[in-house]
Amino acid sequence: MKNNVERMIMTAMMTALIAAMTAVVAIPVPFTNGYIHPGDSMVFLAVLALGWRRGAVAAGLGSALADVFLGFVFWAPWTLLIKGCMAMTAGLIMEKCRDSRRNVAISCGATALLWLLFNVVVQAVVAYAANSSPASLAQALGAAEAGALGAALGSVQSQLMLAALLIPVGLAAAAFALRRKEGVSVPLGHVVGMTGGGLLMVFGYYLAGGLIYGNFAVSALGIPANMLQFVGGFLIAALLSAALQRTPAGRRFALGPKSP
User: Fold this and answer.
1) Cα Rg for the chain, rounded, in angstroms?
2) Pairing relation of β-strands 27-29 and 34-36?
3) CB 44 within 8 A of CB 175
4) Which of 26, 213, 238, 253 is most exposed, with minimal Cβ within 10 Å?
5) pLDDT in tens, the chain (260 residues)
6) C-alpha angle with apex 202: 97 to 53, nearest 5 degrees?
7) What total number of domains does the chain contain?
8) Is 257 part of a structural domain of the chain?
9) Which domain CATH number covers 206?
């Protein structure tokens, strides 16, 4: 009974922290009527501390509450689902990779393949919109000239492909650098889990934005900002988790550093 009450209190605390970190520093993103924030760091920390089940509850509720507080009520139901799935995915991958190098390799391959397919689809959508109805797309984006719009969309396509290649490598390199310079141990399973959860969040908001505004090409312009958001969240969560692991609170973490 005591453990159940303790877990409920921890879940409520992480829900509040996620809502606070999301709402306090909210940076508007053009075109999508949304925003980016450091709240993903608390989402990842909630997964490490609570496990994927309770972490998903805290992530979904806390993030949705922040949308309501900031006046983005129309995003709240989507956020509840997307952030919950983000935390669940990250936690499940971490759990499966905890003592298995084979699962780490499988998760890396699956994440890379799905992300590559997503990028191919998004680039096709953007190219089709730019070629079939450049004027209407320019109007939706508030661009003065359709020609300038084409150049901007081409730049976005290049950024997406570059990010698809560099983000997993960059996160692994960051984990290695933190271990060497700061003595912070970030298991590879955690890197893969946070990457998988973060990329699912990027996909979820792309899909939600396209459905809400009826334009998947415009929604694609929010992808780079969302990728930046979860990469920053990974770094903050890794540092906080490593610091907490050195305190008595570290013993209560559901997902510790025991991973290949």
Assistant:
1) 19
2) antiparallel
3) no
4) 213
5) 457 788 889 999 999 999 999 998 888 876 666 788 889 999 999 999 999 999 999 999 999 999 999 999 999 999 999 999 999 999 999 999 888 888 888 888 888 788 878 888 887 887 777 677 666 666 655 554 445 555 555 666 666 666 666 666 666 666 666 565 555 567 778 888 988 999 899 999 999 998 988 888 878 878 878 888 888 888 888 878 877 877 887 777 888 655 44
6) 45
7) 1
8) no
9) 1.10.1760.20
* DSSP calls for 151-200: HHHHHHHHHHHHHHHHHHHHHHHHHHHIIIII-----HHHHHHHHHHHHH
On whether residue 178 sits in a domain, the answer given is: yes
Integer Cα distance of 258 and 38 in angstroms: 26
Closest to 229 in 3D by CA, of 22, 17, 75? 22
Please tell me the pTM assigned to this model: 0.86
Distance CA 249, CA 15 (A): 18
What are the angstrom distances between the C-alpha of 83 and each of 109, 249, 250? 23, 25, 24
Q: Establish if 179 belongs to a structural domain.
A: yes
Residue 94 belongs to a domain: yes
**Residue given tokens 């312009």 in the structure block:** 221
Contact predicate 156/220, CB 8 Å: yes
Domain that holds residue 227: 2-252
Q: Which residue has the tokens 């889990």?
A: 193
Which two structure tokens, joined as six digits, stand for 42? 């608390």
